[in-house]
């Protein structure tokens, strides 16, 4: 993936390629200064850490390697995006929060943030950032005392988990009435799940297949989100950016789906 013409801005969805019921839910994200700054200024992790990462990947997952070494910094939402998506919220559960690169920017609009993360090195990073982190797969178990939330986020996690539909149901189950769920999925989707150094197919289908972004979005919404029992509120498209060894800007385009309980 090479650098895009407009690396910090969200590309527009082509509404003429969407069914009318989905086209009317499209509302683009605003310009996001943090994402734009990351595209201009972020640096990669260098040759030494890249060599260490390649060695670690023989025995651990991508997530564990990045968590141990701090490699592959990423950007998806800055403060401007979180404010636009959620507005002021009391309590957010960020499911599969990873290194916290995205989560930290939600502090500007959320009173309390709780996270979940399966990777032990990533969980340690989240705790160092000051977040409560439950090292658990919510699709299998809800931690005792987790409570309820007026917002839940699943940012680029449904395509990297074992049971995406079960995870979505579990996330919806801790939403308060009227609460918002924000999910992002890079499209077209390439779902897989890491078990140690191995990569396997998920146990449940996700959807998100198609010849272009819009057809993949329709497939994702129809197969996974509309059957969830939540109400579709908003669709958008956002750049998902990361840096590797050589400072090159790598980009995927993520569908942003906002639903309400």
Topology:
Elements: H1 20-23, H2 33-41, H3 46-56, H4 62-69, E1 74-75, H5 79-86, E2 89-95, E3 110-116, H6 120-128, E4 132-134, E5 149-155, H7 164-173, E6 175-186, E7 193-195, E8 198-200, H8 213-225, E9 231-243, E10 249-260
Parallel strand pairs: 2-3, 2-5, 3-4, 5-6
Antiparallel strand pairs: 1-9, 6-10, 7-8, 9-10
Helix pairs in contact: 4-6
Question: In words, what does this structure look like?
Answer:
By secondary structure, the chain is of the alpha/beta class. The protein has one domain: Rossmann fold (3-Layer(aba) Sandwich), CATH 3.40.50. The protein is 28% helix and 26% strand. It is built from eight helices and ten strands. The N terminus is likely disordered.
Features:
single chain; 261 residues; alpha/beta; Rossmann fold; eight-stranded mixed beta sheet; two-stranded antiparallel ribbon; 8 helices; 10 strands; 28% helix; 26% strand; disordered N terminus
CATH fold-level topology = Rossmann fold
The shape is globular
Largest sheet: 8 strands, mixed
Order of helices and strands: HHHHEHEEHEEHEEEHEE
- How widely separated are the two ends? 36 Å
The CATH architecture term is: 3-Layer(aba) Sandwich
* Largest beta sheet: strand ordering: 1-9-10-6-5-2-3-4
Query: Helix count, per DSSP?
Result: 8
Average pLDDT confidence is 90
Percent of residues in helices? 25-40%
Number of domains: 1
* Low-confidence spans: 1-10
So what's the CATH class?
Alpha Beta
Number of strands: 10
CATH superfamily: Vaccinia Virus protein VP39
Please tell me how large the radius of gyration is.
Answer: 17 Å
Structural class: alpha/beta
Strand content: 25-35%
